[in-house]
Amino acid sequence: MQTQQVETWLTKSKHKTKSRLQSPLKRNLTAFAFLTPWLIGMVFLTVGSMLFTFYLAFTNYDLLSAPTWTGMKNFTRMWHDASFWASIRSTLMYVVLSVPARLIFSLLIASLLFKEVKGIGFYRAIIYLPSLIGGSVGATIGWRKLFDDNGPINSFLAIFGIDGPTWIGNPSTAIFVLILLSTWQFGSEMVIFLAGLKQIPVTLYEAATIDGASRIRKFFHVTLPMLSPIIFFNLLMGTISSFMVFTQVYIITGGGPMKSTLFFVYYLYQNAFTYYDMGYAAALSIILLILIAIVSGFIFLTSRFWVNYDV
User: Fold this and answer.
1) What's the pLDDT tens digit per position in 138-180?
2) Do residues 174 and 253 make contact, with C-beta atoms less than 8 angstroms apart?
3) How far apart are CA 311 and CA 307, in angstroms?
4) % helix / strand / coil in the chain, to the nearest 5?
5) pLDDT tens figures, 198-223
6) How many CB atoms lie within 10 A of CB 2?
7) Which residues, in sequence order, are bridge partners of residue 216?
8) How far is residue 55 from each of residues 60, 79, 90, 113, 286, measured CA to CA in Å?
9) Structurally, what CATH architecture does the domain formed by 81-305 represent?
10) What secondary structure letter does DSSP report for 29?
């Protein structure tokens, strides 16, 4: 009798152990089953495209004939390409000026909208609206009309007897039109800053008040350090998106005048779909990836000196 009980107990233990081992495997297989559509898209549309682009960067390919291997010819060609260096210069200038301007402006507006007053939700929605339509073709065309020679800006200046400049046709002002458009689309960063401001403990401001700190000192010694992870995130994402700006350049300036707004992605587009030089365009895309990686890596390395993760 005791032997049968022992055998029954051992059988049940084996079944329990087997079910315990199968349960995590079953859960993992279920998770992978739900992830399968995304994994297929990532492998074939993302990783596959990247590998094919890397191959095309070492070939001569015009979409009409088969790619022919050229080795490092596309990369050595960049060294003597004046348009390539012009695109690097204008893109870096745009990134250096537009990203800080957008961060500062969005943080200031978020600080103003942080107070809970009557109708604050409506004001937040209205101020966020440009970010919803700012990247559209229609809004970009409207921005171009705004800065035309006979546009509203110059018409307003004419009231005061000021002869407005050719904003888009002047090499010294064209890039600033694009920077203003980027700064105007500050809503996404503003929302993230608002969320970060709500996470700052009120006790820190109360302690600063007891110590006699002014509003300016509270902002620089309490608000900014506590928001540094949010600033880091917005800085990183804003830098990456600024390197890849295209629609605004294509519609407003077309890379001109005198290549002053010949941004890198627009130059890549020209080589790919205007000159059908796909091999050179693929090499440019690899350089863009390396450039973004270097700048992002620099931001990560310097973050240890100014990002504060302590509460």
Assistant:
1) 788 888 888 888 888 888 888 888 888 888 988 889 999 999 9
2) yes
3) 12
4) 75, 0, 25
5) 888 889 888 999 988 888 898 899 99
6) 6
7) none
8) 10, 20, 28, 50, 11
9) Orthogonal Bundle (1.10)
10) H
